[in-house]
Design goal:
The protein is mainly beta. Helix content is about 15%, strand content about 40%. The protein has one domain: Jelly Rolls (Sandwich). The longest helix has 22 residues.
Length: about 160
């Protein structure tokens, strides 16, 4: 009787070992990176009808990760016109897209400051290694003050 129980236990252990070996590639560690918060731009003044090219730094992005973008801005008078932030991507940090930017649009709320929140999905950043703020477009007839444009990338588990 004891021998049959031992055989069942051994068979169960062997089965568990095979199952573990089968799923081991799924359990491999994912590459980790520290949370990263970046400031693309600060204290910009975009006059009426202007498209301002912004000299922002390149920010590294990781495969399978998106980015949260939070622009903070206000108009100098009453309006609800759109404000467009154009981001460009690069595979090497030298050559940047100019014909297919990632556009993020917010609506102005008169002179009340607006804090936008947008997700640039991993799908949109697929195969890109860097991202930067390229232009800010003001379609409004008066000036816009951009306090800052912040971005954040986080690992899968926090």
């Amino acid at each position: 009787m004891k021998f049959k129980s031992f055989k069942k236990l051994a068979a169960g252990l062997v089965l568990c070992a095979f199952a573990f070996a089968w799923f081991l590639p799924v359990l491999e560690a994912q590459p980790q990176f520290p949370p990263r918060t970046v400031n693309f731009a600060t204290n910009l003044v975009i006059t009426n009808g202007q498209t301002l090219t912004v000299p922002s730094n390149a920010v590294p992005v990781w495969p399978g990760r998106g980015m949260a973008i939070l622009p903070y801005f206000a108009a100098t008078n009453t309006t609800t016109d759109p404000m467009i932030f154009r981001f460009t991507a690069s595979v090497d940090g030298v050559n940047w897209t100019t014909v297919t930017p990632i556009n993020i649009t917010n609506t102005l709320a008169s002179t009340t400051a607006v804090r936008g929140y947008h997700q640039i999905t991993p799908f949109m950043l697929d195969h890109a290694r860097f991202l930067r703020l390229w232009q800010v477009v003001n379609a409004h007839t008066s000036s816009i003050f951009v306090t800052n444009v912040v971005g954040a990338v986080y690992p899968v588990s926090q």
